[in-house]
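Technical note accompanying the year-one report. For the benefit of new consortium partners, we illustrate the data format agreed upon in the data management plan: each record pairs a sequence with a structure-token string. No post-processing was applied to the example shown here.
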Amino acid sequence: MGKQTLKITIAEDGSVNVKVAGIAGSSCLDASKFLEDAMGGGVAAQEMTEEYYEVPVEAGITQGEG
């Protein structure tokens, strides 16, 4: 997986858009949770990218010989 990023856009009306990239699976929700909490919670809309539906690759897992 490539670089992990959060792109935060604040519109003139004060609405905030957060786009998470480079994080597979539901971990992307954890990565942006601190922003939701800092802004008082409440999400108006959520759109999942295809990365959300990918299976995260766990580092350090090796397949045994047998």
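Partners are asked to follow this layout when depositing records. Residues 27-38 form the longest helix (12 residues).
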